[in-house]
Amino acid sequence: MATVHHALVLNLHQPPGNLQELLEHQTWEAREILFALDRIPRSLWGREDLARVHLSLSGTLLETLSDPVFQERVYGIVDCGALLWHLQNQALFEVVGTGYFHPVLPLIPEADRREHLARWLDIARHLLWRPQFQGFWPPEMGFSMELIPLLRAFGYRYVFVDSEHVEPVTEMSWQELRYRPHIARHGDDEIIVVVRDRELSDAQESGMDVDWFLNEVAERTRWCDFAPLVTTCTDGENGGWFRNVTEGANFWSAFYLPLLDRVAAGEADVRPTFVSDYLDEHGVHGEVRVRTGAWNTGWHHGRDFTQWMGSERQRQAVADFAEASRMIHDARWFAGERGVTEGPESDALAEALWHLLRAETSCNLYWGESWVPRAEADLHAARQALERAVSLAPSPTAPEVGSEAEAENEPDVMSATLAPESASARSASHDTESGVRDALPTDPSPDAAVEATSTRGDVDPSATQP
Questions:
Q1: Which of 136, 272, 365, 377 has the fewest CB atoms within 10 Å distance of its CB?
Q2: What are the extents of the domains in the chain?
Q3: Chain centroid, CA 304 distance in Å
Q4: Are 308 and 292 within 8 A, CB to CB?
Q5: What is the pLDDT of residues 434-445, one digit of tens each?
Q6: CA distance 271 to 266
Q7: What CATH class does 4-290 carry?
Q8: Which long-range contacts (CB under 8 A, 24 or more apart) does 248-256 make?
């Protein structure tokens, strides 16, 4: 049997302000998360010969870890500066791109997707000292084929997708479908898709020993007449398996390091690998389609985004994202046409967009309706900022005779009524230039009425209220 290549992928995300809130109200839980993050590079020091880990770090987590105020607050628990420095080790870590505020990309407008991707690249290039990121991690593994042109435009070579949603276009066996990378196409664009093994990933999330993993991988790949790529993807700092501080009782000390020992001793037919290295050596096989969906959660299978869209209030929030996005990007277009790039109007538009993007954080929809008030509060703040921007803009001049066609194509920003607190869904339009990024407002604090905290993993959010 050919050597099995194992791609380990860990998603690391904490929503805006969450670690700060946990430190204030549930200190031990915050420490567990910080220890889990810090444990990743510490566990792998000196293992550069074999260890290979893909990391997705959300923009909000990177922002928190690089914040000098937060760094000072947690110094003595974790040295955030040293942690970020160790994550630059490209012998151990292949960092993959994602969205800044960790949105479920198929559920938000196209113009906002571009903003999330561009802002993540800005902070990741600065903190991690990488000019390019080959792979992409869709937050919550939320993927649709229409994302392919966008991912290619941002330079991504491959994207992770869940095995539940992959369908063959080229004839292939079950083993080939799951354990080989493939091409997926949308229009004139194509991208490599790397398939997450859902069942093995479930085991990685909850806890497994080396013997079980090696036996299971051997059974699943026994009929492969090619070099299989087995990909397991989970959160990397949530749940007791990753947070456990007891030596020999967490993912790293009970599973991954013993696995490396077995590989080094020649007692395992599994070899850790980076996806980029596998692709360079083995290439891709065949074409597939990927159905729209997300990864499985503790409650839902991910096929219809029920986790994030199961209630009317959740669906209304998604509709409100689209409405607010349309108005904000129309207003930004109108300002751009007039050459407005700085000053009070520009600042207000930047603030409106920032609140909108933060509202789209997946955690705001993940916990049923418990966190939807956070999204609603940010949407309200976005509308207020947009109203200020509109009040500062001049009224559009009346079109000259014969210019009706041009006028019809321009967004009627000034006469548009600002969205009510619950607006119906409308499709986003008018793309925005991705080359210029707006500065973040200086006060990112959420509304006091929605200061719940998240731990994801296996903790009910109702138990984490301060």
A1: 272
A2: 4-290, 310-451
A3: 18
A4: no
A5: 333 333 333 333
A6: 10
A7: alpha beta
A8: 250/39, 251/204, 251/207, 252/39, 252/40, 252/43, 253/43, 254/207, 254/209, 255/207, 255/208, 255/209, 255/210, 255/213, 256/8, 256/43, 256/51
